[in-house]
């Protein structure tokens, strides 16, 4: 499945898949997308839900996801301001992929060795 032809145009599927992988290849993007697939989150809720992520990194990853059209950000004109994040219609198309990963993990997850997490800040107790 290296190359496909669409009309006169030839598509290199390897390159196309590299582009697709790049959308979710940030350090925390899959975890963010997993959470947002469940429900709408406020920034602080996301930060608390992801042990080890820094405020700076969460902001950077959310901005990238928003720029790629996978996350939408809604600002409410309140005092103090409220900001909510949710996945877009385009990102909802990844739902079957997340369900497949869940099914795979339920079958094989126990056989995967637990590795100590050395990334980001330490989770607060």
From TrEMBL:
MF GO annotations: DNA binding
PROSITE patterns xrefs: HTH_HXLR
InterPro entries found in the cross-reference section: HTH_HxlR, WH-like_DNA-bd_sf, WH_DNA-bd_sf
Key words of the record: DNA-binding, Transcription, Transcription regulation
Domain HTH hxlR-type: 15-113
A Pfam family reported for this protein in Swiss-Prot or TrEMBL: HxlR
Name of the molecule in the record: Transcriptional regulator
Annotated source species: Rhizobium vallis
């Amino acid at each position: 499945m290296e190359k496909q032809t669409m009309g006169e145009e030839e598509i290199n599927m390897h390159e196309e898949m590299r582009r697709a992988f790049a959308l979710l290849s940030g350090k925390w993007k899959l975890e963010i997308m997993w959470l947002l697939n469940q429900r709408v989150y406020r920034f602080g809720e996301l930060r608390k839900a992801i042990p080890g992520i820094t405020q700076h990194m969460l902001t950077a990853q959310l901005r990238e996801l928003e720029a790629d059209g996978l996350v939408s950000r809604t600002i409410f004109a309140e005092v103090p301001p409220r900001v909510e994040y949710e996945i877009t219609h385009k990102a909802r198309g990844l739902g079957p992929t997340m369900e497949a990963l869940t099914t795979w993990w339920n079958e094989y997850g126990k056989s995967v060795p637990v590795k100590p997490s050395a990334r980001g800040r330490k989770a607060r107790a």
